[in-house]
Amino acid sequence: MCRHIAYLGPPVALGEILTAPEHSLVRQSWEPRHQRSGTVNADGFGVGWYADGDPVPGRYRRSGPVWGDETFADLARVVRSTALLGAVRDATWAGADGEAAAAPFASGPLLFSHNGAVRGWPASLTRLAGTLPAERLLDLAARSDSALVWAFVLRRVAEGDELSGALADTVLDIAAAAPGSRLNLLLTDGAAIAATAWGDSLWYLHEPGVRTVVASEPYDDTPYWHEVPDRTLLTATRDDVLLTPLKEPPE
Hints:
Blueprint: E1 3-13, H1 14-18, H2 25-28, E2 45-51, E3 54-62, H3 70-78, E4 80-88, E5 105-107, E6 110-117, H4 126-129, H5 134-138, H6 145-158, H7 163-177, E7 182-188, E8 193-197, E9 203-207, E10 211-215, E11 225-227, E12 232-236, E13 241-245
Antiparallel strand pairs: 1-4, 1-10, 2-3, 2-4, 5-6, 6-7, 7-8, 8-12, 9-10, 9-11, 12-13
Helix pairs in contact: 6-7
């Protein structure tokens, strides 16, 4: 379920990444090529981007399919950024949260997306959720597994973890509590990207010193894309990409 993408590089119109490529994120909303679960990603979408001189990103999110939103098409044509995170959502159950459940989730300089699903939700995470402060639970962005996963990541960042460590430890905690979950997470602060491949596809495109793109699947058929192995943590900047294997949590 879901598709997402993050970009770091020279200033580009959002549409150059999200709408213009042959197999762009918008096309992936109705015709994904590598999605392992779900079919049509029409239950919400969003994009977050960074403006010069402001570390806090702007966001545009809606609850419906991206292909029917003319305002998004205009925004993607004229807004330019050096860093962005976009996502299209395939919900696993009915809900009333609307655009609040659509990625990217945000806090301060951070943008976050979850491609996947927590198996056995919500019962499987009841015990783990109890480790969060009550105010963090009451402040959840939406009543969804992705919003709770974001709360776990955000707690680790607040405690001083780097982006990559916050994602890796969160994935291992949730995988231990809810085995069989799909936990492809994507996190950026506008300068670096951290992502996990855990149960679904993840790819990256890297031109050292120029641009880095991390996505659920390639947006074109050029040979420059590299698939990330399952159970892997990716950490990237414009200069380099590092892949670190993730071990299954002990049973």
